[in-house]
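Reader question, answered in our methods column.
A reader sent in the components of a multi-part assembly and asked whether the whole thing could be modeled at once rather than chain by chain. We filled in our standard form and ran it. Here is what they sent:
COMPLEX SIZE: two components
ENTRIES:
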Amino acid sequence: MRTILILIKKEFLQVFRNPLLLSILVVAPMVEFMIFPFCADYEIKVLNIAFIDNDRSQISKDIIHSFNSSNIFVSKGLLTSKKEADEKMKHDKIDLLVEFPSHFEEALYKNESTQIAVTANAINSVKAGIGTGYVQEIIGGYMQDFAASHTPTGMSTAMMQQEMMKEMSKARASDDRRPSIVMPTTSVVPQTPVRINISNIYWYNEQMNYKNLIVPGILVILVTLIGCYVTALNLVREKEIGTIEQVNVTPIRRWQFLLGKMIPFWLLGMAEFGAGLIIMKFVFGISVQGSLPLLLGITAIYLFVMLGLGFFISSVSENQLQSMFIVLFLFIVFVLLSGVFTPTEGMPEWAHKINYVNPMSFYIEVIKKVILKGSEFESVMRETIVLSVMAVIINTGAVLSYREASK
Amino acid sequence: MYSIEANQLTKQFGDFTAVDHICFEVREGEIFGFLGANGAGKTTAIKMMSGLLLPTSGTAMIAGYDIRTQSKLIKRNIGYMSQKFSLYGDLTVFENMQLFGTIYKIPRKELKERIMDSLRELDMEKQANTLVDSIPLGWKQKLAFATAILHRPKIVFLDEPTSGVDPIVRREFWKLIYLAASKGVTILVTTHYMDEAEYCNRISIMAEGQIKLIGTPGELKQQMGVDTINDVFVKFVKR
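And here is the structure of the entire assembly that came back:
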């Protein structure tokens, strides 16, 4: 016990005497935490839209007008030719183009099928998807109003919507730079003008605030970095400067030595997580919905997984450069697959399989559930068990891979 | 009784044999010198005897324990000073000694006394709270030695303790070695300063991983018919 205490003291003394390490450990993560959430933004705030109106009818004008009342779309006016539109899209002047065919109004009144073409710049596929979604919503809304006030025959609104969806998904699947989305519209109406309004309630994130997802995600990344990165460099640094030899000739036990190194960084990691939660509450207004002790408990386990991983990497590497590359590689895999930034649901099967051994993906689940949903222990039990097993395995591995005597 | 008994101790790195079936004994309280050019296998031999490196074949008994099977027991009884300075530069003199003393389980109160005594011997009392990084190399080496014998080991391995140190500090360093030996500590020291070899009770000259000559400095000089160990070495190399 005295041995471990003196090792902890040594580690703390070293951390606090190393201004660079201290700033890497404390200042950098905190600053990043305050800045990143404002940058990692999925929200589309502005969409530049232009129109080609080959019909020049009252209805087409009305539809174009209805875009003006939306605060997302910025109308770049009427264009005369497809070529002009192409040029504008190439130079990023417009994100979306809506094209009305000639005889559009006529077709509607005659109850014939007609189409509006929506073209989106899909370099940023998220933006294109959201953009066409909004366009669909606005035109759909207009058509509903139109249908309600005109004679009912033909296709039902529901059918029309379905058809539209099909077209949309076709367009999205194509890899073309600017998929054309062709929206069939008909002058259509249900027999009885029943209006169905769908109102959405987004549970656990009522304002659909992207920060609710990003902020806890970044907190996870920071905790991981402190746990894994700093420790991966620590042990191998002692190898490089040779101090480890002096320790290795003493009768100290391997687990004592590793524990003496782990506990200080574990404490620092926990302190930082706590600071992160405070920032989260007062800067981003996100407070922990679930139980704080539960959250801290699982974080403690997760930190042990990451510390163990760091030491494992450190003990199999020859120098700091090597261990840095290994950590960097693992870190990118962990982050991209974990679902911090992109939902795991859309990932292929093999990615899901990798996630079975990705501690970060379990931990982000816990974070989302406990912080945003206020989940109880039962609903994060699986993750807790998995993380505990991982902690035991990786730390055993770290102790075993650490060699006092080389071959 | 022997403190160190090497028996056919061998270390191979791939095809290269760094230490080739060496056999020698060191008596208790003896100062035994390991001489040889760079790459002769001195450091490899020391690392095996202090439990930092596993031998390929052969073995050695250190303080009566086998290096292959009883390394934990050996470690309690030896001190080691690496060729490369390996105390913590970002800890103070006192903190370093306290750290290693505690690892060797010296009781708290006694440890403090021992550290103070040893700093007095080194004439470094004023530097107790100085960071090790900021003291001169000669002092660092003396400090490393004092730390290596703080837990009163039976045997101390010193790997080129005086390389790069000025002649005055070297002489002081040897005084410390004699002081320790007078207390019954067995000392195995490597060096390539031939004048230092004269200070040893017995020396061995290594080349190509083998012990080529072994004996007291007087015996070796007589054997080769020369006046200094330096000449012994030169003559040996020419042969």
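What stands out: The longest helix of chain B spans residues 167-182. Residues 222 and 232 of chain B are 9 Å apart (CA to CA).
Send us your own complexes using the same form.
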